Amino acid sequence: MDFSTEKIIFEKQSSSQGVDYIPTLSDIDEAIVAPKYRRKSKMNLPEVSEFETVRHFTRLSTLNFGVDSNFYPLGSCTMKYNPKVCEKILADENLANLHPEQCFKSIQGVLEIMYNAQKDLSEICGMDGFTLMPAAGAQGEFTALKMIDAYFKDKGQRRNKIIMPDSAHGTNPASATVAGFETVTIKSTESGKIDTTELSRALDSDVAALMITNPNTLGVFETEIEEIAKLVHDAGAVLYCDGANMNALLGICRPGDMGFDVMHLNLHKTFATPHGGGGPGSGTVGVKDFLMPYIPAGQVIKREDGMFDFSKSEKSIGSIRSFYGNVDVVIKAYAYIKALGFSGLRNAGLTALLNANYLRENLKAYFDIPDSRDNCMHEFVISLKEEAQFHDVHASDCAKYLLDHGIHAPTIYFPLIVEEAIMVEPTETESKETLDNFIEVMKSFREKIKTDPESLKAAPVKTPFKRFDEVTAARKPNLRWQQD
Amino acid sequence: MEYLPHIEKSKKEMLESCRVSSELGFLEGVDEKFIVFNMDLSTPLSEMELVRFFKEKAAENVADYDMYLGGGMYSHFIPAAVNALAGRSEFYTAYTPYQPEASQGTLQAIYEYQSMICSLFNMPVSNASLYDGATAAAEAVLTAYSVARGKKTVVISEGINPQYLDVIKNYVEGNNIIIKTVPLSDGLTDADSLEQAMDDDTFCVLAASPNFYGLVEDMSLIAKKVKDKKTVFIAVVNPMSLSVLEAPGDYNADIAVAEGQPFGNNMYLGGGALGIFTCSEKFMRKMPGRVVGKTTDKDGKEGFVLTLQTREQHIRRDKATSNICSNQAHNALKACIYLSLMGEEGLKKVADNNMALTVYAVNKLKNVKGLKLPFADKLSFNEIVIEFDNHTSADVLKTMAGQKIFAGIDLGKYNADDKNRMMSCFTETKTKEQIDKFVETLEKSLA
């Protein structure tokens, strides 16, 4: 029995308790609202009781995979365990009910947490300062690019281009566009690394920054990073690190030590805050001293009298969102840092490497892993190019096959430089049992390609729903319930 | 405390399988000089110590004073069922629903959220959420710009939240968009001035209702003036007001955005944000952010998928409608649950109570010496401006805080001319008695 036929809540009807959540005012006149200001159209909200609402959403929740119930080897997403203590900490009313307009004296506790989060993230990344304001990785990229833009304008230079490799995550060029830059894409080497010759060719006085991730999206460390940094800096440009892959370096290396001038972190990846089905995340941005003057408003400082307060520097780019950022997410990440300490973060990073390599080692005999090196970092990419060509079995078929085994699909069709890519990142919190099971399931997938490729087209068959008609969904969009 | 899985035996087997003696063996190619062996971080804590630490830190904040603060984030009552349901790990530990067969819980909830928002706003399309009201307003301008055909100017009423203006400036700069702001006239947008500010280069106009001073604008008139000139009209609204006051669709707004935090989200010092974005059909394929659509699976069973993905960054890259990826999905879920629990009657009651309590406060304040209510003759939703004859609002706020009341926002922070003005917010969380105490205490502090 599954709840896959759970109706849309609008189609349910029961007596709502909606008016009983707050008291009825007595001895108070209603406000007088002139007809011209009154709502004209009919509202159409569901009419359901609390109990039916609870039943409805409880049932819906059973239709979801979640990290707490399923393995999610999603490359570049770092779906690690979300510690329950972090959720408990956030439930405290003295954090949950703080209004952003309260005077600074009344929020010293949370300001201290934010101040220390800025400090600890700087230490972990080898940066001089951090802003907690960006709401997600993409917004972090945008914020960094705005700071870079402000920096060059301040120097009286006009630099309009951002260079990035063809393996870059889609948000990189998208963020560059929103920030007003032109994207220049350079081809990666065979092993998906930065081609320093291509890079030299692309670097000119019009380039503001190079955006890369290290390790790259194939899970390979950019061994040429010092040369890359030198080339970029010699051209007067800034080196940006997309920190989505920070889990490979956690407690082991620091981007700031390698020549990166600015980077963003995804707290909802590396720092174990929950994904929430699509957010909220937090895309905090770290910078070296020369970019600090441009850091967004809402920077937490420690005054001479020891109190914490917000500050905004003269040359700050101002606000890129309201108030101070996804403070709830920042607090959870800070709790994670405090629980683990340096040794814990380092062990997490090292174990992430171990788990990824263990999978790679045991799968390389069965799948094409287009990377000739002996090992990877925290993730690796399988290519189903041959299987697609000779058996018409694609990365999407592998994804659906895994769903039938209760495993969420890895990242597929990214990075773009690998055909039929399947990017696998187990993270450090997965047990050997889980990993061994994944290996067995992948091996059985391999078998199926040989013995019964047709059956793979039918997957998934064990989930409450089969493959969806995504074509019609896009051609004839139905984006809201409407009364017939 | 760490969350690592391997017993010694397993770890040993795994290392052997990889033919390395330790994890450091995976770092070949990483220059030794980059490898760190210590960091200046605090000592790791056991869970017990961690809980104690945060309890103490949390207690160094004040969250239990009588609070009359608004300005973009609002204290509303949240039924217990909201967090109980949203706190289910199948919801909060789930990933983005790219694999629909494994994500129907999230997908159906978002579709229901979109439906409720469309209904409340009386707009045909809603996305699955953006970061907050401010970025939603910024993205709305960029969406309008995508069909602007070379026009470069956006006209914005100064009734908009000043933070939203800052954010919009940052987002439109990259396209060399020009912002023209129009001052308020006695606290409200003058529709004629707005019209006069428009020219052949104007591609969209923004106005907010309630505006930053809490006053309800004549959006029908403003919208008409804008649309008569065939220009895109973007409305910025307080969603909690829509059960009683005009919905954006009622005055044919092209795009309507809002801060959705009032619906079931704790404030977390501004963290519990939710960017609501709605638009007309015309903008559906230009809209930023994710959107969920209904469809059927292979067996003809109805279900939901992320759709219209060709607008998004993972497909269109530098030509995407926006760079947004992760949004505030879990906060949207809370909003959806809140709206389900409250229903039309419940939501209407909240709005009515907010307005009634605000009127009650205004009537009591009228009798207080030492202050004026500059906009008392105009309609407010749940915020009012109080102007002090002989005090700065900073001083008054300090005195009130000494009496355990966060009396309002110092408007001098946002406008140097408003140093003697304070803005106070009255939501359904307040009782008549609390408001009486507010007024008495204010009176004493002005004496």
How far is the N terminus from the C terminus of chain B? 55 Å
Q: Tally the beta strands of chain B.
A: 15
What is the rounded Rg of chain B? 25 Å
User: What does the average pLDDT of chain B come to?
Assistant: 96
Q: Gyration radius of chain A, to the nearest Å?
A: 25 Å
- Low-confidence region ranges of chain A: none
Largest interface: A-B, 202 and 205 residues
Oligomer: heterodimer
Structural class assignment of chain B: alpha/beta
Number of helices of chain A: 14
Q: In what order do the strands lie side by side in the largest sheet of chain A?
A: 1-7-6-5-4-2-3
User: Biggest sheet of chain A, in brief?
Assistant: 7 strands, mixed
Strand content of chain B: 5-15%
Report on the structure:
The complex is a heterodimer of chains A (484) and B (447). Chain A has helices spanning 50-61, 84-90, 93-96, 108-125, 137-154, 171-178, 196-202, 225-234, 327-363, 385-391, 395-404, 432-451, 453-458, 470-475; strands at 129-131, 161-165, 182-186, 207-212, 238-243, 262-265, 285-287, 299-302, 308-311, 380-383, 411-412, 421-424. With 484 residues, chain A is α/β, with parallel strands linked by helices. The mean pLDDT of chain A is 96. Chain B is α/β, with parallel strands linked by helices. Chain B has helices at 8-17, 47-59, 80-86, 89-92, 104-121, 133-145, 162-172, 191-197, 219-228, 313-316, 329-365, 393-402, 432-446; strands spanning 66-67, 125-126, 153-157, 178-182, 202-209, 232-237, 255-259, 275-279, 292-296, 302-306, 371-372, 383-388, 405-406, 409-410, 421-425. In chain B, strand 5 (202-209), helix 9 (219-228) and strand 6 (232-237) form a beta-alpha-beta unit. The longest helix of chain B has 37 residues, at 329-365. The mean pLDDT of chain B is 96. At the A-B interface, helix 1, helix 2, helix 3, helix 4 and helix 5 of A face helix 1, helix 2, helix 3, helix 4 and helix 5 of B.
